[in-house]
Give the backbone structure.
Amino acid sequence: MADLSVEITGIRFKNPIFVASGTFGYGLELKDSIPVDKIGAIVTKGLTINPKIGNPPPRLVETPCGLINSIGLENIGIREFVEKKLPDLKKLGVRIVANISGDSEWDYFEAVEIADDADGIDAIELNVSCPNVEKGGMEFGRNVKMLEELVSGVRRRTGKPLWVKITPNFVDIVDEARAAVNGGADAISAINTLLGMHVDVQKKSFTIKRKFGGLSGPAIRPIALYVVWKLVNSIDVPVIGIGGIDSLDAALQFFMVGARAVQIGTANFVDPLTSIKIVSELNDYLDKNGYGSIQNIVGILH
Ligand SMILES: Cc1cc2nc3c(=O)[nH]c(=O)nc-3n(C[C@H](O)[C@H](O)[C@H](O)COP(=O)(O)O)c2cc1C
């Protein structure tokens, strides 16, 4: 057995294969059908201070090698999450990362204070990169001044590991990541979805009600890989790779350029066992190649 465990931002994870926000529900939905304790960490659906119903449908469309979504952060609100979901989640034996969004700075602050108090939330992932909301979301990620202010305000409110999930949409990703790190981020998660659109030619209308959404899946993998490589070479905090990872080969690409962990997103909709299969294949790969530990492969192309 190879050593798959990784330490990121002061927490030890049993393996570096996590599931990405918004693609694995609150973490409980699949607990009776798949062994979720084999996953390195579950990043929750995006949580906000108040419950959100999200955007009107249609809000999903498949594209070549990808998916466009415009869910708009539908969720039950962080208070209800902590009261009703977290107690059961804690029993699953898997690390929990709370993904937090807000319309305004104060929304983020209030939600982070609740996450900070909640026993069972191991780390906070601040989503400053959602393309599917009118207020907040990506606007923070795209404005380095606002971002640094937001992250430093959040930093003052939590001692928990703080990851910031950034957007590659129309920004200099290095400036954006540096602003997050200057504000006090302990790690960067990259990337969130890329803006995209689809037209229903027969109906002569936009397929998605809100016209555009966020593109995810294998279509964005090469972009995500470039972003991760660029960040690993530019900043001093761990980078967590996300974007179109659906196989061992895809995960290894991210590890080789220096990602300290990866998150599986859209692939969960194709097969919710993807992350667990990758964990087992990663173990076999490391064993077969005599690596012994995941540490021996991370950043070999750095
Ligand atoms: C349906 C759907 C919902 C998502 N919801 C969130 C969310 O609430 N918060 C967040 O930070 N990212 C969210 N994402 C983005 C994913 O976590 C991930 O960053 C992105 O999809 C790229 O990874 P992938 O190509 O493996 O899906 C969502 C993605 C999808 C497809």
